[in-house]
Protein 1
Amino acid sequence: MRRVLATTTVTALALALAACGSGNDSGDGSTTLHVAAAASLTRPFEQIATAYEKQHRGVQVELQFAGSSDLATQVVNGAQIDVFASADTANMDKVGDAITGDPAIFATNTLTIITEPGNPKKITGLKDLERSDLAVVVCAPQVPCGTATQMLMKRQHVTIDAASEEAQVTDVLTKVTTGEADAGLVYVTDATGAGDAVDTVATKGADQVVNTYPIAPIAGNASPDEAQAFVDHVTGPEGQKVLKAKGFGAP
Amino acid sequence: MKPPVWLWIPASGAILVVVLPLLGLLSSVDVGSLWPLLTSEASVTALLLSLRTSLAATALCIVLGAPLALLLARGSWRGQSTLRALVLVPLVLPPVVGGLALLTTFGRRGLIGEHLVAAGLSISYSTTAVVLAQTFVALPFLVLSLEGAVRGLDRRQEEAAATLGASPWRRLTRVTLPLVAPGLLSGSVLAFARALGEFGATLTFAGSAQGRTRTLPLEIYLQREVDPDAAIALSLVLVVLATVIVGSVYARTTRAAA
């Protein structure tokens, strides 16, 4: 019994250690490029990465999507990231010296009101979101889309008593698509991505509150030339075409 | 009888897995700014909301869970083991799944929520939704602890009371409940602790609005976006609370067992 237990323990430890040591080198001379991008970039970046891999034989693009502030924290803490694309300049500023050169602005995004399909509550604009019979969900002021929401409300002299302030713009979208909320404020790209699941309402002044997306290679990464080439691809005509198709504005 | 000494080798690994992250958290606490961070309006509001809702959830767990625990421990009826398994499900469910389950039941389009809305009783985005989510996840702790306590009872005292002509209600309140009071207490404290830490179901189901649904764990989640130091300071509060709560329960039970 004792021997069996000891063997089990040793095997378990060995397995655990082996699992920890997963390598990042592909070992066959090819390069893996680690790209960390804001969650709102998921759709365009997947498409861009596929196109990039086709044009650059031997390069594997490994994408990672999360909230910009999460990614910024990872960059600062030295995670293996070669390129960082943020949903706002504040989080790019947060990584400070960790990037090489100046970040390039590659896209913009604006807010829009979304409602349930068919707009059953007859919402015609920002002012309607003040109505007390509506459950309106927005982003919390602590995250980029919430900062933009606050600025938009201030400029348009609108005060929304939000039913909930979400930490992620996608959670606002879900609350509207599931019928939990009557309306919400999300990025135009989120509304585009949701397709028929939501209706958009013309949002006065939204074009004045623009979120800019910066991208930059991370200093000291394993393949600086590849990282720069990927950044150039995103800011170049091909990357821009994909971003435009997904609803992003030009820089 | 002492266990073999070499067990300390894997056991110290287990201790490290639990203790190291807590040390990591402690080491990144910025002591100088701790007090202002903890006493900010948002933190205090979240802490008070957490305490209030967790107390309400614990009360609900006792009122609803204690009778169920008694029935599960003493009854013998069809479907008993199935019911026990069902009650324990929230214990092993991923939090976000619990939230989705609540949403599809009590949400505005939910199974029951739809009728509640029609009757003018929407619980979405309300403090009630938070209490409901907390009760959902905390109930198994109370039921498990109390059922175990009742099962472990020496039945002779209850039988003696019965021979003396005590009614079932009188037996329950005068004999059984006083005997299982420690089990009920530790179950309630664990349920309270679980309610205090509830995050996933609340976020999915109740939303996040300051003073109404944004409990301490949700405040930590949000603070992390802008001010990691504040998030760590608030996390420290939860760690201290959890340690005190669990410590107090186990100090009692181990003393009782010794």
Note: The mean pLDDT of chain B is 89.
Protein 2
Amino acid sequence: MAELLSLHEAIDRFVGDGDCVALEGFTHLIPTAAAHEIIRQGKKDLTLVRMTPDLVYDLLIGAGCARKLVFSWGGNPGVGSLHRLRDAVEKQWPQPLEIEEHSHADLANAYVAGASGLPFAVLRAYLGSDLPKVNPMIRFIECPFTGETLAAVPSVRPDVTVIHAQKADRKGNVLIQGILGVQKEAALAARRCIVTVEEIVDELDAPMNACVLPTWALTAVCRVPGGAHPSYAHGYYERDNRFYQQWDPIARDRDTFNAWIDEFIRGSEDFSAFQAKLAAQQEANR
Amino acid sequence: MSYSTNEMMTVAASRRLGNGSVCFVGIGLPSKAANLARLTHAPDVVLIYESGPIGAKPSALPLSIGDGELAETADSVVPTSEIFRYWLQGGRIDVGFLGAAQVDRYGNINTTVIGDYHQPKVRLPGAGGAPEIAGSAKQVLIILKQSHRTFVDRLAFITSVGFGEGGDHRQQLGLPGNGPVGIITDLCIMEPEAGTHEFVVTSLHPGVTREQVIENTGWAIRFAAELGETAPPTATELEALRALEARTAAAHGQSGGDE
């Protein structure tokens, strides 16, 4: 059964230095609040897995929490580059970052294999691409039935996965709606799974065939309203496109970035204090 | 009506998408052209985005590949793993519509890195869904602005395969789809030459000269014997495109997707 915990306690107890961590959410329901708490608690040497690193991993990489990144598309959607990711790859700042680079189809399959308890995923991919030349974890096997050459990649099995969802009931059953990405697969592939939710309700009222993660498959559920900002939570709030644009100059410069996380993340007790601080700044700039 | 070279590019690309075809759409320019097709000559085109929406019909262009409106207007929303496993790898995509940072004469695409992989001059976003879309879609369309920096003699990195080293190399590699059938730029349309599969200019946009295309291509670009001229955008096409961009600006506060 999942425990209903504060995000502080969940990250403290279930994310350890050196862990392999997946914060998933495909442009929707990105667990930003959990990344902030990981930075606040100064977790380090993490192997970060995520199809689209997005702002959430730009933060963790720039804050010095990451040793390695496993990913398949690293940009700021609709804006441009992830400057902290690029600085780490191009100039080893604030520390060297090992990268293991895949394609979306590959990582999606690798999560499915992880959730399926299999050691590797098999897919039709990478013939003629240079990616297998720079990523030794991409290999090829021969189909035992047809002889076709297929790609094989190790399954993703994180120590801990963190996802964000719309709601949970008081037992900790979680309902996810809208764009699902690989949240379900990432949750079931992990040894431990933390879910942050917009609200905790008496009854989920989940439609038949809805994506429900049962409480007994999860480790902790934390109520963090707005916890997916600046991405969106379908039915609760929209994507904050302006913040994605504002992130570009913040992340572009090392000093500006450091000052920003010192003030807004390390200088806030929790995510609601961060939200209040950000809202006050946005109001002042209006 | 007067029009910009970017508008010509988007309109020319949108015309290549047949009504009723099933299209796997990349974010940015491909998404703009695909939605213009849906709003003009191809109302029954099925747009699939890698985040999970099948049959999306957004009124404004999405800024991210997983905007909420894509889900709300879709016939069905499925997990991302299912998109790649059942719908793409399963062979159900007619057209893969891709952007690129760089292409070469055989329609291979680089979206990974400029310079050495381990000590890059410029680190690009990476593969995303493109390698398997380029591999498994029955046909591929590529749209990007033309310059000698984007149309290069030799790619620093092949992220997604077009015709590999040309000739029957793609077939030898065993890729199931037929590969790229058109590269649409702000200057012209290129198509693969029979046999060599080298991309040659088959249609110049109105007012564009051969010299301009040669200057903006990093290899010795060739022109088809029967070189056509692209029909200029019609009033209907331009009005639909501009209305779509206006709705996008109103919805997001930014135009979304020229890059």
Note: Chain A touches chain B through 53 residues (CB under 8 Å).
